[in-house]
Write a structure and sequence with these properties.
Layout (H helix, E strand, L loop, with lengths): L6 E3 L12 H7 L14 E9 L2 E9 L6 E5 L2 E6 L7 E7 L2 E10 L3 E8 L2 E2 H11 E8 L2 E8 L5 E3 L2 E2 L5 E3 L2 E8 L2 E9 L7 E7 L2 E3 L7
Antiparallel strand pairs: 1-6, 2-3, 3-4, 4-5, 6-7, 7-8, 8-9, 10-11, 11-12, 12-13, 14-15, 15-16, 16-17, 17-18
């Protein structure tokens, strides 16, 4: 369940981490389908945050004349502050159970940089840690799209952001977890590699066909 509790803080104790210029953020992230909402809103920064089997799109509006600040998560407005006299500072909110901060810092020439921190880490650090902790597969079967995410540290399995309750069955060399979606049978296998550095090998099949992994998150 997505919970957002906004407030403004001027806590300066957080160490200064890598800052992202708004143009760098937007130029490297393509619009997520449909019409780009930034055409109608003053979106200056956009991030994609993987968490619990989902990828949340976070957008931040900043009116440099009015001081307006608006937070959007997955195209839903979560909070709005109009006529903020202080153009820089921090806004805090919660994404799932993680504390997040968007920080606005001044740059020369009346410009601003926008940084996202998730669970005490910079956006770059958080997504890097998620890349190590998650394994993701994507499959399109007919008109249905499936995104399967394994949390390697908890062994939780998510299908399109929903936690499944199936338990693994012990087989020779590891476990098999079988679950069904729309009459399609998925089997997530975990096998020991025999190599200490490589660790456990995870493989997904659907209806008997192997699904290649699509990286850690995005």
């Amino acid at each position: 369940m997505l919970v957002v509790r906004p407030f403004i803080t001027n806590d300066t104790r957080m160490s200064k981490l890598t800052m992202l210029n708004n143009t760098d953020i937007l130029s490297n992230i393509p619009p997520l389908g449909g019409k780009d909402s930034a055409q109608h809103r003053e979106v200056v920064a956009r991030w994609r945050v993987p968490m619990y089997g989902k990828v949340y799109e976070i957008e931040f509006e900043h009116g440099t004349a009015s001081g307006k600040r608006v937070l959007w998560i997955d195209k839903q407005e979560m909070f709005r502050r109009d006529w903020m006299f202080k153009l820089v500072g921090e806004d805090m909110f919660k994404l799932e159970d993680k504390r997040c901060i968007i920080r606005v810092d001044p740059l020369p020439g009346f410009r601003y940089s926008y940084s996202l921190f998730v669970d005490g880490k910079s956006y770059e650090q958080f997504t890097e840690s998620q890349a190590k902790a998650l394994k993701t597969w994507e499959a399109k079967l007919g008109d249905n799209f499936y995104r399967i995410v394994l949390e390697k540290n908890t062994l939780n399995i998510y299908v399109n952001g929903k936690l499944i309750e199936e338990n693994g069955e012990f087989v020779e060399g590891g476990t098999d977890t079988t679950f069904t979606e729309d009459s399609n049978t998925f089997v997530l296998s975990a096998r020991t590699s025999g190599n200490k550095r490589e660790g456990i090998i995870h493989q997904l099949t659907v209806n008997g066909t192997e699904v290649p992994d699509s990286g850690a998150m995005m």
